[in-house]
User: Fold these one by one.
Assistant:
Number 1:
Amino acid sequence: MSTAAVPELKQISRVEAMRLGPGWSHSCHAMLYAANPGQLFGRIPMRFSVLVLGLVRVPLYTQKDRVGGFPNFLSNAFVSTAKCQLLFALKVLNMMPEEKLVEALAAATEKQKKALEKLLPASS
């Protein structure tokens, strides 16, 4: 199985962003998170609850099947362009070890590949 890498993004200050000039657009995003002592389904520990842009709860766990939880979330179509930003933020904020991010991304990619193969069988 191939390993997927977390894309490299550069964190810059507000001052640096303002110096980019008129050809650049600026956006501001917020990621809120809090410790969560709860358990999912009464048995899976939830270390954090994450709220991305105030709209989506990100499951920061992987189930025993290595697909459920965070990998499954990454394979959803609605995560789309926010996926790189989410992975970058989780890495920069040290909310999840990089090797876990890579594992989850690889599992999500494999799940999407299998789903596509079902929809588009190889032509004979």
Number 2:
Amino acid sequence: MLGRSSVIARNFSQSMVRFSGHGGVPGENLPFSIQNKYRVTALFTIGCVLGFGSPFLIVRHQLLKK
């Protein structure tokens, strides 16, 4: 019973990938454009700096609060 349901699920997932129309072009499914490499670099840098630095800034703010 379990084996048959996994085969059905696998066939369904393969057919959805095959007929979905997405794929083949790098960056086609991203929510932003990757045509301008300088903009992508700037957004990536800003995202990494904010994502990595914000916990440290929050802790610093909490420690300096009176």
